[in-house]
Design goal:
The chain is an alpha/beta fold and 549 residues long. It is built from 18 helices and 20 strands. A hairpin with a 4-residue loop joins strand 15 (441-445) and strand 16 (450-454). Helix 1 crosses helix 4 and helix 4 crosses helix 10 (210-222). Bound molecules: zinc ion (ZN). The site of zinc ion (ZN) has 8 residues, from loops.
Length: 549
């Protein structure tokens, strides 16, 4: 994005770089380098992305989920030289943000305030929804509390009006994400697209600028990496000795974290070698042992399942595990750390603001990236709740995403901020703990041992049934699940294939015949009365006493 390029230009001109001084700001050396790199890649192999062609990328990304994004680089190839510039640029960006956690809070607040004013003025100028919401507010002199809040229902029902790019149509975005080949590709050549799973009962299409993803990855590589030494020297060193990152998810898809990860090789460059794996592939353990990752990224439920099988895993170079997308309950965190003996930062984020925070390596919880996000813990009437007290909901503002502004966006999680200063050295505000995000998993007995079943299995089965508006799975016995379905208003009978789709999904995930599924249609599925958040997975019997039996 132009703003980011200006930041990088600033770094370069301060180093008296001839190219940066001689070229116009929006057509700088980096822009030219990227276009040359694309041409080099096209000449070399015809792959549509940046960088060398993957060795075994599957024809259909949904068929096979494991592939290596980058083969070992050769410094003598022109495409690799361009890739080096790409990595260098990312390293320069990291140097701009790496010291922010040590800044005085007042300094961070000034940066945050400046970015908020810029975002709010831009949103009011370009987005019909925000223009109407901010009517009557002096956008040059306002307090954050003066801005009206927004929520998923409002943004979803006024999707096109909420955007700042008038070219974007909902139908085009929906058509784009119907094609799995578009994973890792920019919509309109500049926006990353994803959709939420609808944990609050309603899915939402999300578009992000490149800058939002760059901040997300830069924060993850610096603030979310307790053992790292981010900077230009580290960037150069890692070009020859990249970090090996294994990402284990259920499947590839346009869900927020999964969609973002597709862009990681392009944005981070040759800092990393990535291997994508599926939690349900039969040779997962063997592939992890062969790849020898330095960093393992996955969902809490999958990490817990791997921890139980840790006697088969021989990950001698593992330095860090990162949990994404699911709440890390204390039971799972303890089991994972006992199995792997490495740092386990627990990143807390929402699909609308992936860059929200990075897990703290010493005190637990996670530090808000307050230079690029605003995080408000509030009560039912949107009044601020002080640190040390549990709020009723949160308001999130993503300062890096200008195409779909999320400003004071309401999320149903109940959060408590920490009171004490943190021992890790970061002065950024820290989330002490989060309530209201239940771990969405069941323990099933397959005849010989207990297996952890993620809600993603049911989600995958029901995704294709368009008559279903919302669902809830209730584990009533160890191997019996009651599926409660809320149908769309114009549908009166449940789709005939719902039971078959669920059983097929369970069979596909190696749980054939062990699980009885009851289907019940209800008029309305309501949020949990205690947490005010909709729960898709509810276990009435809890985990087994000994999951290894
Ligand atoms: Zn900390």
């Amino acid at each position: 994005m132009p703003r980011l390029y200006r930041i990088v230009d600033g770094c370069l001109s301060s180093r008296r770089t001839i190219a940066a001084r001689c070229l116009p700001a929006r057509r700088n050396w980096y822009t030219i380098a990227c276009s040359l790199r694309v041409r080099c890649a096209a000449i070399k192999g015809g792959w549509e992305g940046f960088g060398p062609k993957p060795q075994n990328r599957p024809a259909n990304p949904r068929d096979v989920v494991a592939y290596t994004a980058f083969p070992p680089p050769s410094l003598f190839h022109p495409a690799t030289a361009m890739s080096f510039l790409h990595s260098l640029r990312f390293a320069l960006f990291i140097t701009r943000i790496v010291h922010v956690p040590q800044w005085r809070p007042a300094h961070v607040a000034r940066v945050q305030r400046r970015r908020l004013r810029r975002l709010v003025r831009f949103a009011a100028e370009r987005s019909p929804l925000y223009r109407e919401k901010y009517r009557g507010i002096d956008l040059n002199h306002f307090e954050l509390s003066q801005l009206p809040t927004t929520n998923k229902v409002e943004v979803a029902s006024h999707f096109e009006e909420s955007l700042t790019d008038g070219r974007i149509r909902r139908a085009d975005v929906e058509r784009f994400i119907e094609n799995p080949d578009n994973l890792g590709r920019w919509f309109l050549d500049r926006y990353a697209v994803s959709h939420t799973s609808g944990s609050q009962g309603q899915p939402l299409l999300i578009l992000q600028d490149r800058l939002a993803l760059e901040v997300f990855f830069a924060a993850m590589c610096s603030r979310g990496n307790p053992s790292g030494k981010p900077g230009v020297i580290e960037g150069i060193r890692r070009f020859r000795h990249p970090v090996r990152v294994a990402i284990v998810t259920l499947r590839r898809g346009f869900y927020p974290s999964g969609s973002a990860i597709e862009f990681m090789p392009e944005i981070v460059g040759d800092f990393v070698h990535i291997q994508r794996l599926s939690s349900v592939q039969s040779d997962l353990i063997e592939r992890l042992n062969a790849f020898q990752p330095n960093v393992l990224v996955s969902y809490a439920s999958i990490l817990e399942a791997l921890a139980i099988q840790s006697d088969k895993l021989h990950l001698n170079n593992l330095r860090q595990i990162a949990n994404i997308s699911e709440q890390l309950v204390p039971r799972a965190g303890k089991r994972i750390q006992e199995a792997f003996h490495v740092a386990l930062p627990d990143h807390y984020a929402t699909g609308e603001c992936l860059l929200l925070s990075n897990g703290c390596p010493t005190n637990g919880g996670s530090h808000i990236n307050a230079d690029w996000a605003i995080f408000e813990v509030v009560d039912d009437d949107y009044r601020p709740v002080p640190p040390g007290q549990l709020g009723k909901k949160i308001l999130v503002t993503n300062l890096a995403n200008t195409v779909q502004p999320f400003i004071r966006y309401e999320v149903g999680d109940r959060v408590m901020m920490a009171v004490e200063p943190c021992r890790c050295g970061s002065r950024l505000p820290r989330i002490d703990h989060v309530e209201g995000r239940a771990a969405e998993t069941f323990w099933i007995f397959d005849g010989s041992r207990h297996q952890l079943v993620s809600g993603g299995i049911f989600c995958a089965a029901l995704d294709s049934l368009h008559e279903v508006r919302e669902w809830q799975a209730i584990q009533t016995e160890r191997n019996r699940v009651k599926m409660r379905l809320e149908l769309l208003p114009h549908v009166s009978t449940p789709p005939p294939l719902v039971r078959e789709a669920l059983l097929h999904a369970l069979t596909k995930h190696e749980l054939p015949g062990y699980v009885v599924v009851d289907v019940e249609v209800v008029p309305k599925l309501l949020p949990d009365q205690v947490t005010s958040k909709f729960r898709r997975m509810i276990s009435e019997i809890g985990p087994p006493d000994d999951p290894q039996m």
